[in-house]
Amino acid sequence: MAHYRASESKREQFRRYLEKAGVLDSLTSVLIALYEETEKPNNAVDFLKQHLGVTGPEPADTQTLRLELAELRQKYDLLLEENKELKNKLLQYEPAQEEGTNE
To answer: Matching Gene3D superfamilies, A to Z (predicted)?
Structure first.
């Protein structure tokens, strides 16, 4: 009987810990949101992860996304430079705006 009380005490301590840390409130909120869904998701665990903020890219995906971001930034910089050059060329061949309005 003493073993039962000791484990019950540990359970109660753990329950208080979860309550104090806000875990019980978070889980309750997410479970309520799942309950209130009109169309239940196929994967309830994914729903829980998404609503708890757990879902995110996997580490391999993160590396791929970082590489893609670096490439896109480089391309963006090149396009900005090209745009600037083209605007300068355009200014050489087009008459100034003031001259065009006098016609």
So the answer is: 6.10.250.1060
